[in-house]
Amino acid sequence: MCSVVRAAFLCSQFSRKATSLFSPHLRKMVHYQTEPRGRANSPDYRIYFRSSDGACISPFHDIPLYAADQQEGDVPPKKIKTNEILFNMVVEVPRWSNAKMEIATKEPLNPIKQDVKKGKLRYVANIFPHKGYIWNYGALPQTWEDPSHTDEETKCCGDNDPIDVCEIGSKVCATGQVIQVKVLGILALIDEGETDWKVIAINIEDPDASSLNSIEDVRKIKPGHLEATVDWFKKYKVPDGKPENRFAFNGQFKDKDFAIEVIKATHIFWKALVMRKKMKGEEIICQNSSLCDSPFRCSDAEARAVLQAAAEYGEPLPVSSEVDKWHFVTK
């Protein structure tokens, strides 16, 4: 079913040649390039994405969910089983950092931006003993937690975002980096009455990737990591005056097979999202460069216009020393 959906829906990814000039600040990755606009640590900062040939793309809609949908010739590391399902992950927040960076689902081409609340940039607090985010945090592209769907297991609706990923490898990634991950399990956070799934995954380039194949392997090889994850999600909003978060399944992690089924379901919800005839009001922006049958597919010129309209890249602004403050939350 899953391969049929992908084959029927996705056209040949990013086959066009680039016709625009590259920014001197453009950062290259294996298949994608990022182009920052605005000034880091300011509300106008954005990280836009290009395909390897320079076409402007959406990290939400144009990057394939499944790593097998990449360009021909991609071969996973020898330490990864050939029948392993691998996923692309868009890194939003590097480990140990505090800025709450996220895919801007309601902006054209969905760049990564820093979340703003009540006019202020959002940073997660350092809740002792955790410094910032304790994993590389990001999202799986081409997934969507449908807010109109009530999950049978959690009895709550989706949170209207791509599904979140906690990558537990040893490398600190960069915002906007696209990595291939192996799914190990999943945690069901209930955030203000909404289901907010947290996929636990490992970068396939990590030294421990071959040894980590299940959530139980994480308990054995990285003792305390799963407990720290639950503790982090439970308390991270407390410094903002909010109560501790709660979880479905009594805070227990579900296994790999369960996680993959959840991911497949969110991929189907996403497919329905980008195939709608039109958008209403302030709904998610589905503008994309590569989905053949989507009514929101745009031309190269239209996509380039989005970047051209963005703020010019500038030097980062200083960050308040308050970000480094430690918080102690008692049980």
TrEMBL record:
Keyword Lipid metabolism included in the entry's annotation: no
Gene Ontology terms for molecular function: inorganic diphosphate phosphatase activity; magnesium ion binding
Recorded hits in InterPro entries, A to Z, give: Pyrophosphatase, Pyrophosphatase_sf
Which cofactors are required for activity? Mg(2+)
What Enzyme Commission number(s) apply to this enzyme? 3.6.1.1
**Top-tier EC class:** hydrolase
- Enumerate the UniProt keywords alphabetically: Acetylation, Hydrolase, Magnesium, Metal-binding
Any one Gene Ontology cellular component term annotated for this protein: cytoplasm
One GO term (biological process)? phosphate-containing compound metabolic process
Highest taxon in the source lineage: Eukaryota
Q: Which PROSITE patterns match?
A: PPASE
Oligomer status and interactors: Homodimer.
Q: Member of which family?
A: Belongs to the PPase family.
Name of the protein this chain belongs to: inorganic diphosphatase
Q: Which organism is it from?
A: Cyprinus carpio (Common carp)
Its lineage reads: Eukaryota, Metazoa, Chordata, Craniata, Vertebrata
